[in-house]
């Protein structure tokens, strides 16, 4: 009788191929529920009489453009890899990473804008309407850090030429997550602009 | 090394027993950690029952076990609250969520669907270790200054949001939140794995309608968990922000010691919405696996196909769906718009339909069955009993007009302990008796098992049934003592009786723990298929190997409930009263489950 080894690389690769994407998708559902909880909380809080309608800081527009662009560059990187244009793939992946960092920077600038216009995260002069602005965007950014880490892995593997037109699962996973972050941001942006 | 042995057999101790990625070992880790937590939770309840049954009386055991939490053998009022809070938290989350789902989902999913392991062994290992760390933090919180969290397991603000409000709201509450955040991560990692494994790694022929009902229940539980636990995490994070950074999500216009606090604009009711959006599905996260386990046991031990296999799946799906739209019934007295209250009443009462379908299916499966009263079967029938008696009071509490009268009384305590506590624990214990041979390769002692069952069923009804009368008489829950109110003087005897039953229940569990430990080490060796069951886990060897089946994974040809199947002449099709799933269908033979 043959012995089955779970250390068998082929077996592992087969299981990964079958399960990695569904694992990610169900993970994304849980993140959707997390933000659904938070944004529903905001809607409940809004009914309070001292709720203040706030303007979205202009920097958030810049953030939106940057993250939309980064999704595009990352998608291009996958196409380049599939077409075996690995050099372009590496460049676009690095570009995506740089855009991710830029997005982070714009978030900090936006918070500064909020702070300067007298909207505080916490304390005596704060109001839940302002706190939600900070909380929602900061929690999105926290998820984006995970995306940046995955990008860093993809960048490194790209430079080391670990990907090929038939071996793109790693990029696809990271890309799906990155698109998700973009979609989540766009949702939060419009939510903060029109609902909050 | 023999042909059957596997390279993993020679793994280091550390990777085989501690940081294992093998689902069977992880299952045992969940079970043992869950049981240790459960024992601590059980002991806490026995201790605070002493205070309720004999208010103000001195007990050496309280002095001995509680130390500075008691004075002259009487527990301190604020520590009573801490014990109640920790009892609830530990039982609901650590025993009946992680202990129950973690153990049986891990053990049975790969074995019953025919997979070598979970989709991701690594995430599975992380899931256990997150659970372990959260358990340790929760226990450490018992020893910090001010004591453990004391705001009840529902940790409503402002009590939980203001560190200065009560002693347990300080570091104890902070640790509670940290522990629960890690617990939620553990639960989510587990659920991801369960869902993906069930959907993607089934063996050949294992269609969704040939899955054992255990697997269906674990699948629906995991889906409910993925949808509801993140919302609790969101609620807890906002609470952390309020506590530690001074935001006002849940706080407004609060005075402490005549001083107005600077928080404004928030609402504690918001927390209740977010909490119960998890909190009610949580009831079904506890209950569904127990129902799945008992479906399997009732069918196997009645030697009859489960009645209404598809109806069982549909009703579990319906329960899972409805569980997400009923949370408002916990909040009828929060000033909720009566119209909204009526909506929640309606959705809540709807749950009675799928629940009743399940109960009838259990009873009709038992009907005229060739019943084998193993301890697992006794506990399964016990579950059917508690599911009915607890469910009936659910109709009263689900109706806003009636609920308002008994809200926050012992009626509620009696209700949820029977329908969720007892049903969950009965399902879990039934599972342990039934799959002990698969877990440890040995048999539990049946006589001790039967004794355990009868003590448990009598004492637990003895505890929770009279509580309904206390509740109807208006006795509020969470009070340290009822002897301060002349109104309740004539009810003290009931409280004393309940406490005696609680002590009996505790003693009954000691029998179980002895049986468990002794049999795991010294019990008689188990045969491969001790219950003559059909599902795939009994086709694996008694000795665990990584990968589960030494050769190819067997293919499946039929549903798992072909018990006592007869041909036109009235003879058993295969000469025995069971046909394992791996036996191909005979010529002209129909598969069960509606195939």
Based on the structure, what is the oligomeric state of the protein chains?
Answer: heterodimer
Distance between the termini of chain A: 65 Å
Tell me the helix content of chain A.
Answer: over 70%
CATH-assigned fold name of the domain at 62-195 in chain A = Four Helix Bundle (Hemerythrin (Met), subunit A)
Number of strands of chain A: 0
Helical content class of chain B: 55-70%
CATH topology description of chain B? Cytochrome C Oxidase, Chain A
Poorly predicted spans of chain B: 1-9
Number of helical regions of chain A: 5
Q: Supply the number of structural domains of chain B.
A: 1
CATH class of the domain at 62-195 in chain A: Mainly Alpha
Radius of gyration of chain A, taken over Cα atoms and rounded to an integer in Å: 20 Å
What is the makeup of the main sheet of chain B? 2 strands, antiparallel
Label the structural class of chain B. mainly alpha
Strand content of chain A: under 5%
Number of helices of chain B: 16
Give the radius of gyration of chain B.
24 Å
The interface involving the most residues is between: A-B, 42 and 55 residues
Structural class of chain A: mainly alpha
What is the overall pLDDT average of chain A? Answer: 92
């Amino acid at each position: 009788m043959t012995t089955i080894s779970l250390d068998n690389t082929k077996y592992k690769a087969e299981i990964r191929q079958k399960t990695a994407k569904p694992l990610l998708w169900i993970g994304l559902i849980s993140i959707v529920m997390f933000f659904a909880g938070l944004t529903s909380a905001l809607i409940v809080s809004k009914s309070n009489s001292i709720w203040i309608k706030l303007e979205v800081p202009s920097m958030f527009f810049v953030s939106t453009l940057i993250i939309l662009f980064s999704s595009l560059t990352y998608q291009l990187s996958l196409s380049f890899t599939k077409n075996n244009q690995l050099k372009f793939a590496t460049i676009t992946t690095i570009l995506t990473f740089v855009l991710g960092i830029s997005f982070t920077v714009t978030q900090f600038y936006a918070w500064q804008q909020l702070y300067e216009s007298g909207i505080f995260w916490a304390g005596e002069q704060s109001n839940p309407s302002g706190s939600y602005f900070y909380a929602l965007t900061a929690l999105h950014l926290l998820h984006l850090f995970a995306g940046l880490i995955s990008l860093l892995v993809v960048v490194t593997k790209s430079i080391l030429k670990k990907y090929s037109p038939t071996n793109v699962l790693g990029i696809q996973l990271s890309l799906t997550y990155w698109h998700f972050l973009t979609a989540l941001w766009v949702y939060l942006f419009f939510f903060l602009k029109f609902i909050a | 090394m023999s042909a059957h042995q596997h390279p993993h057999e020679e793994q280091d101790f550390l990777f085989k027993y501690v940081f294992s990625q093998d689902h069977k070992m992880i299952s045992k880790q969940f079970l043992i950690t869950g049981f240790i937590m459960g024992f601590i939770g059980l002991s806490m309840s026995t201790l605070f029952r002493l205070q309720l049954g004999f208010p103000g009386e001195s007990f050496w055991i309280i002095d001995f076990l509680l130390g500075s939490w008691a004075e002259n053998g009487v527990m301190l009022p604020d520590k009573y609250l801490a014990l109640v809070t920790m009892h609830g938290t530990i039982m609901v989350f650590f025993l009946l969520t992680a202990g129950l789902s973690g153990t049986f989902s891990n053990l049975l999913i790969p074995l019953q669907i025919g997979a070598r392991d979970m989709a991701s062994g690594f995430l599975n290992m992380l899931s256990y270790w997150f659970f372990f760390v959260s358990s340790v933090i929760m226990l450490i919180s018992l020893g910090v200054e001010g004591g453990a969290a004391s705001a009840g397991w529902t940790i409503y603000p402002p009590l939980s949001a203001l560190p200065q409000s009560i002693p347990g709201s300080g570091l104890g509450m902070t640790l509670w939140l940290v522990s629960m955040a890690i617990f939620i991560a553990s639960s989510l990692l587990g659920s991801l794995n369960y869902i993906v494994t069930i959907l993607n790694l089934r063996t050949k022929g294992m269609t969704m309608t040939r899955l054992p009902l255990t697997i269906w229940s674990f699948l629906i539980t995991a889906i409910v968990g993925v949808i509801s636990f993140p919302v609790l995490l969101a609620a807890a994070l906002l609470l952390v922000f309020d506590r530690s950074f001074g935001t006002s999500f849940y706080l407004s216009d609060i005075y402490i010691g005549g001083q107005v606090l600077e928080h404004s604009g928030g609402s504690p009711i918001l927390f209740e919405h977010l909490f119960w959006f998890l909190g009610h599905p949580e009831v079904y996260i506890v209950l569904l696996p127990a129902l799945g386990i008992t479906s399997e046991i009732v069918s196997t031990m009645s030697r009859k196909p489960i009645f209404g296999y598809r109806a069982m799946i549909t009703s579990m799906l319906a329960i899972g769906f409805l569980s997400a739209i009923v949370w408002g019934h916990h909040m009828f007295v929060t000033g909720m718009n009566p119209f909204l209250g009526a909506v929640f009443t309606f959705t809540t009462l709807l749950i009675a339909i799928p629940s009743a379908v399940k109960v009838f299916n259990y009873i009709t499966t038992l009907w005229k069955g060739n019943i084998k009263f193993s301890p697992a079967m006794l506990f399964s029938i016990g579950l059917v009993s508690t599911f009915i008696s607890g469910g009936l009071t659910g109709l009263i509490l689900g109706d806003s007009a009636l609920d308002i009268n008994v809200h926050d009384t012992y009626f509620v305590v009696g209700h949820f302990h029977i329908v969720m506590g007892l049903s969950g624990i009965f399902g879990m214990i039934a599972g342990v008796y039934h799959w002990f041979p698969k877990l440890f390769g040995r048999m539990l002692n049946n006589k001790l098992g039967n004794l355990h069952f009868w003590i448990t069923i009598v004492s637990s009804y003895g505890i929770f049934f009279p509580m309904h009368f206390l509740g109807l008489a208006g006795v509020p829950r969470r009070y340290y003592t009822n002897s301060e109110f002349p109104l309740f003087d004539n009810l003290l005897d009931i409280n004393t009786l309940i406490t005696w039953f609680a002590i009996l229940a505790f003693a009954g569990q000691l029998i179980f723990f002895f049986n468990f430990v002794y049999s795991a080490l010294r019990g008689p060796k188990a045969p491969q298929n001790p219950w003559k069951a059909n599902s795939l886990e009994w086709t694996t060897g008694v000795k665990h190997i990584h990968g589960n089946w030494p050769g190819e994974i067997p293919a499946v040809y039929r549903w798992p409930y072909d018990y006592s199947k007869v041909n036109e002449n009235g003879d058993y099709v295969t000469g025995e009263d069971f046909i394992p799933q791996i036996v191909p269908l005979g010529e002209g033979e129909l598969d069960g489950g509606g195939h």
